[in-house]
Please model this.
Amino acid sequence: MDKNKAKNQRQARRHGRVRAKISGSVETPRLSVFRSNRGMFLQLIDDTEGKTLASASSKELKKALPKTEAGKELGKLIAEKAKAKNIAAAVFDRGAYKYHGRVKAAAEGAREGGLKF
Model:
């Protein structure tokens, strides 16, 4: 139990360092990434109002893909949803995760979809 608690505290500290530097608004919302073993979730968040403007989940993808490819497709999907809401730019929030693997693939997919960071 102590190992899990220490791990969660380290993760919260890392996330706090990232969040202290970035914030989203209506014009440039924050693109938040959450990944789990089963899936991945992206949200465009307006921090001034505390509202989610758009979201995408790996459950929405039509076919089963390897995790990094699913991240890239998910990035493209959130970019499409952002375009539909007239959002051209966002601030990327990697959370406590390294900019590597699925997280990096999601960011690259969003860029390919037309979202600017």
